[in-house]
Design brief:
- The complex is a heterodimer of chains A (214) and B (319).
- Chain A folds into 2 domains: 3-32; 47-213, OB fold (Dihydrolipoamide Acetyltransferase, E2P), CATH 2.40.50.
- Helices cover 46% and strands 22% of the residues of chain A.
- Chain A has 7 helices and 6 strands, in the order αααβααβββααββ.
- Chain A has a 5-stranded mixed β-barrel with strand order 2-3-4-6-5.
- In chain A, helix 3 (49-59) crosses helix 7 and helix 4 (69-78) crosses helix 5 (80-87).
- Helices cover 45% and strands 19% of the residues of chain B.
- In chain B, strands 2-1-3-4-5-11 form a 6-stranded parallel β-sheet, with helices on both faces. A 4-stranded parallel β-sheet of chain B has the order 7-6-8-9, sandwiched between helices. In chain B, strands 10-12 form a two-stranded antiparallel ribbon.
- In chain B, helix 3 (75-87) packs parallel to helix 4 (104-112), helix 5 (138-152) runs parallel beside helix 6 and helix 7 crosses helix 8.
- Classes of the chains: A alpha/beta (214), B alpha/beta (319).
- The interface between A and B is medium-sized, with 23 and 29 residues.
Chain lengths: 214, 319
């Protein structure tokens, strides 16, 4: 058989083998998936601060350990440094310490940004419950609901504060403000920040988590 | 026979001699001080110069040889620095990354080579790569700055926001902190939001351009002090320096002076000296065997205004 005919016969086999190799390579390199499935999977792997904050507000508030507000104030007056170091939470290197406090109180006045209250104890101190300007990390840090070391991107960690503050603004404060009036007796639980460099104990501001009119 | 024997001997001895020469090159002197590399995103900004020099100085005080590498805000340049410092046998890296995502591979490469990395000021999106990340709590700083901004603006007016590098997490933590406050006041309108890459000249150019289409703004919020100074220059050129409030972030010397002179309203003080010194101390502890370190250590940022400026000094030392 002439060499040329032999070569012509081999050519289809050669092409078949190349096509087979390319086919096998592409089969493993390319795959198709419905866009909805893909988006759902992507969403699952993205941290959802709203869901995280929602779960906290809906399930954790009642059991959240709190210090009695009068004991808290008394302890701060007695030894601010020791009390904050032993009982407070703080984020990284800071002079800001955070606490969850609770108590019974009487409403003294309703102001633009706060409700002024007097604790239901002898020689009662005055405190302020924040109803406006609810921003920052006070709730997140006081409650210990999240640890920065668990978050690859600090923005996710900070978005928890944004989401939880939003829930307080939308779910906790409006129903309380619509009913509360001066002289009402209330129960409160909330988060508070104390700066050890500038304590300003007379003007502590509690970000509310639970507000009940008795 | 003689020539063949000679050739065999040469073939046998040559690799040994070469190996000995190479080993001699990398042989470590047990008494020589260990080396710490300080890799900084850019030395074209005085704040980062203070960060780099403070880190190097502290490391020298702790007994290390140091070299400062300038990445010029370029991840490729930064990767080159990491290749060099790995080859040169540095013991640790005090690292100010250029990009939260783009810098992760450099940190990982150093880790694979057994060189621990300590991030300063800016974070990378990795919990496993760096030993620890000492970062400013930019979000909280801008929440406080945002509240001050709202009160100074009486809850209404038009403003411009100048963002930093879009690949840096600090840019978005600052912006997010600011907007977590300001966006709740519907009479505060943001007329433009543009990146000026943390750069003074670029900020001036961007604001000059924005002012042409929005000449009636009341304030400019800037993601760092360099941009605040650039924005202020643009306002001076436009004859609006007295009517438009400028807010920065960092606590650099020129902005602190500008606040004293009532030219700039406020900044958020983050201390490059403190961050750098903390990073150097932690690197020293790590090299001496300490392993119990938090993955991230945020440092509080404080708002500096025309009212409390006397309590502060530039770059974070308090009066």
């Amino acid at each position: 058989m002439p060499t040329e005919v032999k070569t012509n016969m081999k050519r289809p086999i050669k092409y078949f083998l190349i096509a087979l190799l390319v086919g096998v390579a592409l089969y493993n390199a390319v795959y198709f998936q419905p866009l909805d499935d893909r988006n759902a999977a992507k969403k699952k792997s993205v941290f959802d601060p709203d869901a995280f904050a929602g779960a906290f507000i809906e399930t954790k508030l009642k059991e959240l350990p709190a210090i009695k507000a009068d004991q808290f104030l008394e302890s701060l007056k007695q030894d601010l440094g020791q009390f904050t170091a032993e009982k407070g939470r703080k984020l990284g290197i800071s002079n800001d310490y955070y606490f969850i406090v609770e108590g019974n109180a009487r409403v003294l006045g309703i102001e633009e940004e706060n409700v002024r209250i007097s604790l239901d104890v002898e020689n009662a101190a005055e405190l302020r419950l924040a109803t406006e300007f609810i921003f920052g990390n006070t709730i997140r840090e006081a409650s210990g609901m999240a640890n920065i070391g668990d978050f690859q991107n600090t923005m996710d960690f900070n978005n928890i504060s944004v989401a939880v503050n939003e829930r307080v603004r939308s779910d906790i404060i409006p129903p309380f403000l619509s009913e509360v009036k001066e002289g009402d007796d209330i129960y409160f639980k909330g988060a508070v920040k104390v700066n050890t460099k500038k304590p300003n104990l007379e003007n502590l501001r509690i970000v509310p988590l639970i507000l009940e009119i008795k | 026979m003689g020539r063949r024997f000679f050739s065999d001997v040469v073939k046998f001895i040559t690799p040994i001699i070469l190996a000995m020469i190479l080993l001699g090159c990398v042989r470590k002197d047990g008494n020589a001080p260990k080396k710490i590399a300080v890799v900084i995103s850019t030395l074209n900004n005085p704040w980062f110069v203070v960060l780099g020099e403070s880190a190097a100085q502290k490391a020298r005080d702790l007994g290390y040889e140091t070299t400062i590498f300038d990445s010029q805000n370029n991840t490729a340049k930064e990767a080159e620095h990491f290749e060099n410092l790995i080859a040169a046998g540095y013991s640790a890296v005090l690292f100010n990354p250029t990009d939260a995502e783009g810098s992760v591979s450099n940190v990982n490469r150093a880790k694979q080579a057994g060189i621990p990395t300590f991030c300063m000021d800016r974070e990378v999106n990795s919990l496993e790569g760096p030993v620890t990340q000492i970062i400013s709590d930019s979000f909280s700083g801008c929440v406080d700055l945002g509240q001050y901004f709202v009160r100074q603006m009486n809850k209404k007016g038009k403003y411009v926001e100048l963002l930093g590098l879009v690949g840096d997490n600090n840019t978005w933590n600052r912006s997010k902190g600011f907007h977590s406050v300001v966006d709740h006041f519907p009479d505060l309108k943001m007329v433009a939001q543009q990146s000026a890459d943390f750069d003074r000249n670029k900020a001036m150019e961007v604001l000059e351009s924005v002012l042409q289409s929005n000449p009636d703004i009341d304030a400019v919020f800037c993601g760092n002090d360099a941009m605040a100074m650039g924005a202020y220059q643009a306002l001076v050129s436009a004859g609006k320096a007295d009517s438009v409030m400028v807010f920065g972030f960092d606590g650099t010397e020129d902005v602190m002076n500008a606040i004293k002179n009532k030219k700039i309203m406020a900044t958020a003080m983050q201390s490059p000296k403190f961050m750098a010194q903390t990073a150097a101390e932690l690197a020293d502890k790590y090299l001496k065997g300490e392993r119990n370190m938090d993955r991230k250590m945020p440092i509080t940022v404080e708002v500096v205004t025309q009212d409390n400026i006397s309590e502060f000094d530039a770059y974070g030392s308090e009066n």
